[in-house]
Amino acid sequence: MTTYKNIKGIEIKYLSADPPAPNAGQVWYNSTTKVVKGGINGVGAWASGGDLNTARSTLASAVNATQTAGLAFGGYVSGAVALSEEYNGSSWSEGNDLNVARYGLKGMGTQTAALTAGGNSPTIASELYNGTSWSNNTNIPAAKTNAASAGFETSGLIFGGTPPSTGDVNTYLWNGSAWSEVGDMNEAKRNMAGFGTSTAAISAGGETPPVTVNVELYDGSSWTEIANLNTARRGCAGSGTATDGLVYGGTTGSFTAVTEAWNGTAWTEVADLATARATHGSMGTGSASLAAGGETSGNLAATEEWTIPSATTKTFDTD
To answer: What is the pTM of this model?
Structure first.
């Protein structure tokens, strides 16, 4: 007979009381209540955060910023804007503007060290943020808008987008001093979600057109097609890593609130956003993400926070 020790290599601990803060996967026998218990992951959910000061769509964000130290910039109001805002976990405050107002741009990095590239027209413009102000940076090799991004201010990627109008396969790498073209994506696309690092990046959804479920993984040299999203969409956003990520929102022809979690192998539908939206800013991790702004029937200022609670205790049926 297979036992827990055979599977895990350790025996179940006998405890007189449940541990106060169990880890997910931890199992024990409570000798007082005489039942087997374990720690399981909490159920993730979206909750309202503080609104942006200016409602806007097609904005950018520092994709590896955190839920409590966020950065969103650029976007569309009634035209391109240069606005830059920082999030402290509860509210947004306006900082120094971009040097070039634009929408459809993409961002990498964190709240104190960010990189942006591309944007409407399209443009080759790139800028760096030092936590206080934006400065002009070396241009990307070719103009892009509605692309996707991953990575940091010293090592970032921008990929896909337009032109051409049907989407692009080109990927550009920033190494902290210069841009270079690296391995092409397998499928030309635009308006997709991007997240991760420059050596482990995810591209999810978008349009070729039409809207697609396609997902690709970049390993630092080439792209590989991996498990598809459950819902095809464009204008979606994502955050996290290549093994623990989240894609949320977008449009399938109508705006959607659908959220999918990635565990490195498969996508699982989880709790929806409270407000269906597309072209929104995104940042954070697979367990603590931030969705900011975007569009639905008009431009949005609303921010939502995704959180997965710490592991909770579950009693197992041993019958």
So the answer is: 0.87
